[in-house]
Amino acid sequence: MTLLGEDRLLAPLRQALREVPADEADIHVHRRRAAITRYSHSSIHQNAVSDETHATVRAIVGKAVGIVTTNSLEPSELRRALADAASLARASRPDDEWPGVAEPQPIPAPSAFHEETAAATAQDQARSIGAVCVAVPKGMRAAGTSQIEVTEDAVANTRGVAAYAPATMAYLRALVLSDTYVGSGYAEDLSMRVDGLHPEAIAARAAEKCALDRDRTQLAPGDCEAVFEELAVAEVLRIMSLTGLGGQSVREDRSFMSGRIGERVTGESFTLLDDALDARTIAVPFDVEGTPTRKVTLVERGLARGPVYDRTSAKAMGTRSTGHAADPSRYAAGGYAGHLAMAGGPATREQLIGSVRRGILITRFHYTNTPDPRAATMTGTTRDGTFLIEDGKITRALANVRYTMSALDLFSGIELLGPQRLARDWWSSNGMGSILCLVPPIKVRRATITGSSPL
Amino acid sequence: MPSRDPRIAELVSVAGSRGATYADARTVEREHEAVSVKDGAVESVTRTADRGLGFRVVHRGAWGFAATDRTDDAALRGVVDEAFRRAEASASVQRRTVTLAPIEPQRGEYRTTLGRDPFAVPLAERIDHLRAVDAASLGPNIKTRRSSVAAYRTRKHLVTSEGTDVSQEIVEAGAGLSVLAVKAGRKPASRYDSRLVRQAGWEYVEHLDLVARATRYRDDAEATLDAPLAPEQPTTLVFAPEFLALLVHESCGHPTEADRLLEHEVAFAGTTFMWPEDRGKLRYGSPQVSMTADATVPGGMGTFGWDDDGVPAMRTTLVEKGIFVGYLTSRETAGALGVPVAIGSARAEGWQHFPIVRMVNVSLDPGTTLYADLLRGVDSGLLMEAPASYSLDDKRQNFHFSTQSARVIRNGQLDGYVRGVAFQSLTPDFWGRCDLVADDWELHGFLSCAKGEPLQLMRVGHGAAHARFRDVPIEVRE
User: Fold this and answer.
1) Using one digit for the tens of pLDDT, what is the confidence trace for B173-225?
2) What is the rounded distance in angstroms from the CA atom of residue B362 to the CA atom of residue B318?
3) Which residue does chain B place closest to A428, by CA atoms?
4) What is the pLDDT of residue B1?
5) Nearest chain B residue (CA) to A381
6) Which end of chain A is more exposed for a tag (fewer CB within 10 A), N or C?
7) Residues near B283 by Cβ (< 8 Å), separated by ≥ 6?
8) Taking the alpha carbons of B1, B6, B7, B8 in that order, is the dihedral positive or negative?
9) Is residue B368 less than 8 Å (CB to CB) from chain A?
10) Is B45 close to A67, i.e. CB distance below 8 A?
């Protein structure tokens, strides 16, 4: 994808918005080049690149809203989309909650674009996969993904909003499996820069776990101490975000925060922000409505402080949008917390493990869900590195376990926190609700294990 | 039918002249219209369009794929160049070469049989319909009501270097419905359905009788609010077809996807517990349990003329009288396993996606017993009407489901509600407890089965009838 840049991307939007057959309108454009190379058995089996442009046009007549999307940035096509959206709005009914399109506000400069990453080639991706495969010890094999993504986002509207941001993302993961026994280990790097990926180190971390993951035993259900690595914590944060961190979920009594803002919801060691402006994450500094994204304190030392908002949920709740409207084709309306930052601490991995008398170490989860959304309860099975810790040391590999517990209860028992790292949960690593987390590993007093997979 | 752009055949021809051993070009145009109403007001009216070209080559024994939504000649030439570059990069880290199981070249057209084109239904009629549905959802404790109708159209044209040239136009219609009941001092109760979709016209939306359904959902949610917790003890569970459709999807459809055997999905979606040496031997469930993959079921969300490898729609058995016997395959996975193509399951969500093994319509075969007779055989048990949360392990072996609505069965009759019911099990153990399947088979459709990288949300169909499972341990949570 050739980067269009701010002027060339905003120009057709401004042109199309000059003669709008509606009371107001806005256009959000998302351009993306996604290059994904997948490998298994230390061999590339899928190698795909796509260039796509999606323009979402909203036209408002009275308070009725029509929405139309198109792949084209031609001004004539955008004008046609605006006319279609206006005709849908006319045929629709007024929405009394419509808050109007966003007003212009200063938007922070984008900071998530890296030129060298945008220029990465298929050969570059194959080389990094090759480096993983070469680094994997004999008797093991690797599978995983290299992903390079280049995006441009722009929003313009009839009130004069004009926002633009490019971004890059580089991702490499390795799942290492044993050829001779049932065991696996996993590691990954995520960065806005391709030079933030370290194939040999990823292979080494995954292979080390795989080497430990042999002669598994089963853990009986019950409560135990636990160390959650970063990916495992990110999974719990995803459940919190989807069930309870948006303004609409609070408004509809679906959130753990509903009726509890200002009250204690977890232990004091837990603080959670949404911060798209943190230089360590990968973000666009405005939302799809063109509102600058603000840093929002969600939970502060265990006290619920409030959710994120889009314009509609903010109006309904008598407040201002925090700049967290999300693409309506992918996410529920009402505010989406997609750049979480959980406060970390100084504990090393050795200290986290060393503090456990008898408990479990969890590397990551698979296919989690929430049987009780209002309590932010998560259930899911562990995978690719689940170990028994006894007297401060990893002593046995465990068969994958099913964990089921409220995030609030889990985070009430935090005893130690490690340093933050950029990570995504299992779903988000594949694009199903993209939540990026600056997240620490944690040691908790209690995790509830409700079952075990076979050996 | 999509405009048959002659340039895509030229692209395939060019790929051959550049040394590709296989190439295909696939144009896809997708349209979607949706109307949703929340608490009596129109929440959104949306029309989306997405079109482009995906181009695959096998070069030096490796896949390369590139896709674009631009239609100028330079962009199309660029897609060919890009696909070759990706294939060459693949070949540089390769231990296995791509082998495609053979098929005869295909030619023809496939089109959904429609009563009334759902795109032609006036917007005002759709809104009025939803407002009537919304009114039926009103209840003393119903805090939030949502309903929606949607229409989807996909036009595809596939040309391959082996002589296949097929066009398809698939139209789907569907609806969504949800209510949330809230009462002080009680746990909120939701009742919803997002699986009311079929390859059909507006007549399917009318067939759904959304007004009656909304009334039922309201009553279920209101009753669940005040229901007692279920007793936590093993019991007989009867599953409604809607619930079983998801159980079949998660615990049979996914583990029989052949790309899991090759570890193509191991880092994300996972593998399986159903291996080639288990075929014909592994006891998956009781003798009452047979499951079939069928891309020819009328109205199925997994029904088509040809898959995205150009394999014509077929039917195959996955589980026969409780024994695992078959897989869902693509040409590549069948080639790797050294078996003929028994069913074509290579499907891509859109033009921008590489086809991978997906379900078609994967169904639990019906039994011969009337549902009323099945129910009469239950002295004490629960009717599980619709799933809420669900979670599976990476082998599709260890699962956990909870339910939106659980009704008490006493002496063969439905008698009130309980709440808080969930269960976790291992797949063969669960299906092994099935002692009867009724004859009231019905088809359900899913819009968004998630798999692959980049993520592809696939339409799939699942048929099921009421079925009875004995002595299932359940969990009960407040």
Assistant:
1) 999 999 999 998 898 999 998 679 999 999 999 999 999 999 999 999 999 99
2) 9
3) B455
4) 44
5) B393
6) C
7) B322, B323, B324, B428, B432
8) positive
9) no
10) yes
Whether B132 contacts chain A with CB within 8 A: no
B148 and A CB contact within 8 Å: no
The answer to whether A89 and A57 have CB atoms below 8 angstroms apart is no
Beta-strand runs (E) in B182-294: 189-198, 235-239, 291-294
**CA angle centred on B147, ends B145 and B153, rounded to 5°:** 160
What is the CA A397 to chain-centroid distance, rounded?
29
Residue B429: C-alpha distances to residues A15, B40, B255, B399, B426 (Å): 63, 45, 15, 11, 5
| Integer CA distances (angstroms), B256 to A139, A426, B316, B359, B435, in order | 27, 22, 12, 9, 23
Q: How far is A57 from chain B (nearest CA, A)?
A: 10
pLDDT of residue B37 exceeding 80, the answer is yes
SS3 B30: strand
Residue type, B3: S
Asked if pLDDT for residue B3 goes beyond 90, the answer is: no
Question: Both tokens of residue A17?
Answer: 């918005």
Largest CA distance in chain A: 72
CA distance A366 to chain B (A): 6
Q: Which helix (H) or strand (E) holds B149?
A: strand B142-160
- pTM for the structure as a whole: 0.95
Q: Measure Cα distances from A129 to A188, A353, B10, B268 in Å.
A: 12, 31, 33, 16
Burial bucket for residue B14 (CB in 10 Å: 0-12, 13-18, 19+): middle
- Three-class DSSP category at A78: helix
Chain A environment of B94 (Cβ under 8 Å): 43-44
Confirm or reject contact between B392 and chain A (CB < 8 A).
yes
Residues of chain A with pLDDT under 70: 1, 432-433
Q: Does B403 touch chain A (CB under 8 A)?
A: no
Q: What is the ipTM of this complex?
A: 0.95
Q: Name residue, tokens 């190698």.
A: A47
Q: What is the pLDDT of residues A283-327, one digit of tens each?
A: 999 999 999 999 999 999 999 999 999 999 999 999 999 999 998
| CB pairs A-B closer than 8 Å | 259
Using a CB-CB distance cutoff of 8 angstroms, which residues of chain A are in contact with residue B397? 453-454
How many residues are listed for chain A in this entry?
Answer: 455
For residue B36, the number of C-alpha atoms closer than 13 Å in the C-beta half-sphere is: 16
Backbone angles phi and psi of A205, in degrees to 5: -65, -45
- Subunit contact B41:A44, Cβ cutoff 8 A: no
